[in-house]
Write a structure and sequence with these properties.
3 helices; mainly beta; about 400 residues; 4-stranded antiparallel β-sheet; globular
């Protein structure tokens, strides 16, 4: 009984014609081929969906020819207190403000008492001031143009090509003034904002005939952002007020018509003092930096809360185009009229792109993390890295 129960039944004999069995095999082959084709199509669609991001990664990793014109290694202590200024190196150490060439040749040494020194570089000029004190100097044409004593401490600036300076002077009790200072260091005027809020940012218009002040107004139950325009005599020319609903507005730029563009960590707004409503208001998940070129704005931002940041172009009417995607957490966004290129940094890589050519993204890898840089009129780039100073040229 047990043996008969364990005996496996005999395999039935297939008496169907051979042609029928061949047809079954053909259908199995066709089914297998169909499944294979579907898998290939699925992989192809996935590849297509990922292609722009993969292409961007390849573009960002590709290096262009890098020519080092000059090189000077500096230790970390000096680099922590250095800035590129034109084709020289500006440092502040031990109470001395020093400007030197790449070869180490001394251009000037100036004594400056500063507990917490900060610098502001614009238009080939530099302000060095004490964040916790009153002292301030302006450097022009490789020399100290003047010293100035603030009522409080330095909190921001804007420099014009004519040598005038706008200074935010932070006072006790969360108050501040904005001073307009002439090229000889004398104050032309001072504006107070006791009742209207605190000035966050100041900027001359492109023509240098007026300036804008970005103000945070905290009176009432809500925060508001106020943008005011003044002429050089201090007369108010225009004002616009926005709810600070998407965070603190801190960036202030001007297009080629001198219309103000302000941005917060997640919002971009273009204003016209002759119109009540903004020209456009755009929301992003995160904005890392922006620069205005002509009527267009270029910014590093992302539209979703993820690690994928893109380089965007926003035209004068607010139309957004993605120029390069997956650029990483880029910083130090800057435009140079000398080369008509937009520059930004990711770690030790300096990227550049011509604003009139969306396919011209180029990169140059340096020997250490890029701390700061300045594009010179001859197209060379004065770069400070974690290893020292590098004067480079890229195609």
């Amino acid at each position: 009984m047990n043996q008969s129960r364990n005996k496996r039944p005999a395999k039935p004999v297939d008496n169907r014609p051979e042609s029928w069995r061949e047809a079954i095999l053909d259908r199995r082959h066709l089914a297998f081929l169909g499944i294979l084709i579907l898998l290939v199509l699925a992989l192809f669609v996935t590849f297509i969906l990922l292609l722009p991001r993969n292409q961007a990664k390849q573009a960002l990793r590709a290096s262009t020819e890098l020519v080092t014109k000059e090189k000077r290694d500096l230790d970390a202590h000096i680099l922590a207190h250095a800035q590129p200024l034109s084709d020289n190196i500006l440092t502040y150490l031990g109470g001395e403000l020093r400007l030197e060439s790449y070869t180490g040749q001394q251009i000037f040494v100036h004594q400056l008492a500063a507990q917490s020194p900060v610098s502001w570089i614009e238009q080939g000029q530099a302000i060095v001031a004490d964040r916790n004190g009153h002292n301030l100097v302006l450097i022009q044409d490789q020399a100290v143009a003047y010293e100035h004593q603030l009522d409080g401490s330095f909190a921001g600036a804007s420099l014009s090509a004519s040598g005038q300076a706008l200074i935010i002077d932070e006072l006790p009790n969360d108050k501040a003034k904005v001073h307009l200072i002439a090229s000889d260091g004398q104050r032309i005027l001072s504006l107070g904002f006791d009742k209207t809020g605190y000035p966050i940012t100041v900027s001359f218009t492109r023509d240098g005939k007026a300036f804008d002040v970005l103000i945070l107004n905290s009176s009432g139950s809500t925060l508001k952002t106020v943008v005011r325009r003044y002429d050089l005599s201090g007369s108010l020319l225009g004002q616009r007020t926005l709810e600070a609903e998407n965070g603190l507005f801190f960036g202030l730029l001007h297009d080629n018509r001198d219309l103000p563009i302000i941005y917060s960590p997640s919002q971009l707004v273009k204003l016209n003092f002759d119109e009540e409503s903004p020209i456009y208001s755009l929301d992003f998940a995160s904005i890392l930096g922006a620069e205005c070129v002509g009527s267009n704005l270029y910014l590093i931002a992302n539209t979703q809360n993820d690690a994928y940041y893109s380089l965007y172009q926003v035209d004068g009417e607010g139309q957004v185009s993605e120029l390069s995607n997956n650029v990483g957490r880029a910083k130090l966004v800057n435009y140079s009229t000398n080369t008509n290129k937009l520059y930004f940094v990711v770690n030790n890589v300096l990227f550049s792109q011509k604003v009139d050519d969306q396919t011209s993204l180029r990169s140059a890898s340096l020997d250490a993390e890029i701390l700061s840089y300045q594009v010179l009129p001859n197209g060379h780039i004065n770069v400070l890295t974690g290893a020292g100073a590098r004067m480079i040229r890229t195609p």
